Structures are given as C-alpha cells and as structure tokens.
Amino acid sequence: MKDENCGYCMRGGLLEKFGIFICELDVSSLILFKEQSHPGRCIVAYKDHVSEIVDISDEERSRFFADVNRAAKAIHAAFHPDKLNYGAYGDTGCHLHMHLCPKYRDGEEWGGTFEMNPGKVYLSDGEYEEMIEKIKACL
C-alpha cells in the first residue's frame, strides 16, 4: 500500500525535500537525512504506508526492528557516535519510520533530545555521496 503524497512511498521530489535514498533493507528503506547537524543521521522507513507499529504483524515488526538494528550497526561503524538516539514520530507524515540520530559528546544537543530539523548543516552532493558510501560499506 502506497500514498501518493508520501515521500517515503513515492520517493522522487517528495523525498528529496528532506532525505536521500540509500538502499532497500529487508522490509524498509534506509534514507540519509539531509540535515546533518548529527553526522550520520538516517531514517529507516517501513516498506508500506502504515501509521503505527501496531498496524503490522509481529513477524513484520521483528523484521522492521532487525532493519533498524542493521542500520544502527552501520552508523556506529561508519561514524563512531558516543550514542545513537532513536525517534519514532509521524504526527503529520503518518508513515511508520524511525530516525536514527547519532550523538557526539562534543556535538550538537549532547545530553538532550535531538531537534527534528534544526536546519543548520547541509552538505554538498559529493559530501552526501561520501556519507552514503561509508554507510553502505558498513551494512
């Protein structure tokens, strides 16, 4: 099931407003968050347009969290954060997804909740590509 107004479902210009598709995982997509105040921040988005974790079967939920775990391991290996924060929101964009936000002791917002889109750090296309390749090499 897809929603034509959803960037996670349709990709293209809708996704490009906030993220860059990295690859397909088992039951989800891995996306690099364009705003990189927290180097390595990504999103794991479930394959179908469902709103809540309770909207999928136990098996699918296990597979989704296995994807989150796989992405988390890659982010840890590629960027060596001191902590990885996990956020599951979606009040306005009701597509099941999880933000994986690396935190660094000497970095942005250490000791607090990460801001959804601080709008402070955007990279060049080449820098995004380097980050994506680093993540892919660690998957």
Summarize the structure.
This protein is an alpha+beta fold and 139 residues long. 32% of the residues lie in helices and 21% in strands. Helix 3 (58-79) packs across helix 4 (125-138).
Stretches with pLDDT under 50, minimum 5 residues: none
CATH topology (fold) name of the domain at 7-80 and 89-102 and 131-138: HIT family, subunit A
Strand content: 15-25%
Number of helices: 4
Estimate the helix proportion, in percent.
Answer: 25-40%
Query: Strand count, sense and closure of the main sheet?
Result: 5 strands, antiparallel
What characteristics describe this protein?
32% helix; 139 residues; 4 helices; alpha+beta; 5 strands; HIT family, subunit A; five-stranded antiparallel sheet
What can you tell me about this protein's structure?
This protein is of the alpha+beta class. The protein has a domain at 7-80 and 89-102 and 131-138: HIT family, subunit A (2-Layer Sandwich), CATH 3.30.428. It has four helices and five strands, in the order ααβββαββα. Strands 1-2-3-5-4 form a five-stranded antiparallel beta sheet, covered by helices on one side. The chain is globular and about 40 Å long. The model has no long low-confidence stretch (mean pLDDT 94).
